[in-house]
User: Fold these one by one.
Assistant:
Number 1:
Amino acid sequence: MTRRTQRITPVLAIAGVLGLAACGAATPYQPAVDGQGYAELQLEDDRFRVTFSGNRLTARETVENYLLYRAAEITVARGFDHFVVADWEIERSTTYFSTMIGVGGAFGFGRYDVFGDPYGAFGSATARPADRYTGYANIVLRRGAKPPGQPETYDARAVLRRLAPSISLPAA
């Protein structure tokens, strides 16, 4: 092994470990990167569509909190005091990860019948579901005190204060 190879190999190993570590964490509160994170679209002067998409390790409650937090940030940044959630939706998409254990075929690999069983032998498969959540909210920004008795209305600064401790930012 050359000295150059000796120097590159540890770098590649560290990069691989960091890459695997990144796959093992919930989506942080961040602008959307590769479809994960928050985004918004201004529909009118005082209306926005806010979205937050998490990965398979991001809990539904986290997606809901991040969506509300982003709505509150937009409200305050635009000089408004509270926002009304005109409509709200959380979508769940499920992906199944499977593990196949079996012996069969000419060499025991890659030859399966239409039912997923290896030719001429036995096998078993285990499928694990992984849910991924995406939240959407259409919000209307308002000025002044939040009107009482309207559960779909949120005081933006109160939302920011209360949810701030649960917001997980990306690693620096």
Number 2:
Amino acid sequence: MADLKGIIRRPLITEKAQAMKAEANKVAFEVHPDATKIDIKSAIESAFNVTVLSVRTMGFRGKIKRVGRNIGQQSNWKKAVITLKEGDEIDVLGQGAQA
């Protein structure tokens, strides 16, 4: 993907993600489904000014939802778990990066 801004969609702020951040310096993001690990790494490094050691990705199928008589499907999405170099930090609540 050529556009690095469209790769990172949003940080995932869950109990499990916060525990990973505290224990192993890992941060979880929802990313574009077509993004590769190399794209994700370069987007994170340029956006937050940190050093990425590894990227793990998981693809999820959208769930089928029903509202009344109407049936639809949520979009497919991809999650990326980023391992940061020790000392680097990303504040996913909006404060930016600290190196």
